Amino acid sequence: MNSRILRWPLVALILSACHAAPPTLSLTTIPAEPLVEKLEQRSRSFSGLKAAARVETEHQGRKRSYESVAVLLQGAGKLRVEGYDPLGTPQFAVLWSGGDILFRRGAEGTFRQMSREDLVRLLGVTLLPGDLCSLLSGNVPSAPRDSAPTAGCRTEGHCVVEFRKNGLLWRVFVSRPDDQPEGLAIEAAEVYDGGSLVFRSTFLAQERINGYLFPRRVVIEQPARAVRLTVEYEDLEVNVPVDDSLFLPEGGDR
Q1: How many domains does the chain have?
Q2: Is the model more confident about 14 or about 211?
């Protein structure tokens, strides 16, 4: 008899965890479709990036900095990241073009397949490569057609869009740029698994480069793991052609 009584609190705890939800926001509900379409238009209008950056990773208070990192993006489907020491000696290179993640250590000539766990150890954060590409360009992944997005506004011009992707809830904070009221600026994005925050990305120091509003600083955090990835772009070209060959293992060595 006692064992049955004791089980009920455990059952209630499990049921409450299954129905856990992200923190609620006080919003005035608005139609989501116009904002979702603007998010997709912004993502589609980004074609490529060539940049030099400073990258810092932090895990439980331990920091590691890469002072010279080259970042190449082709839309949200191709990525090349190469780190160098102060003398210009290659430290690492990561390639992704929709298939396997490839990795090269130092100046060794060949790339090898890299697991997602290896990518996490290098960058600190747990992300799908395609989502990482989107975030590094100041965007978020497209909302799936069956995601039933919702939206609401807190103050004039500051709104939130929510949609589900791969079982996770994306909460995207947007605003209207002062210099382009009909456009959309993405201020931050949070991703939840039930009521738990998986990661938060913040887009800072935004400026219009080659007609595209782009963040010079991207911060991706995973508070539960005390992890942070900070990318500070320095020299950068936005919406410029980036040759396909640069995303092949031998492409960056020409």
Answers
A1: 1
A2: 211
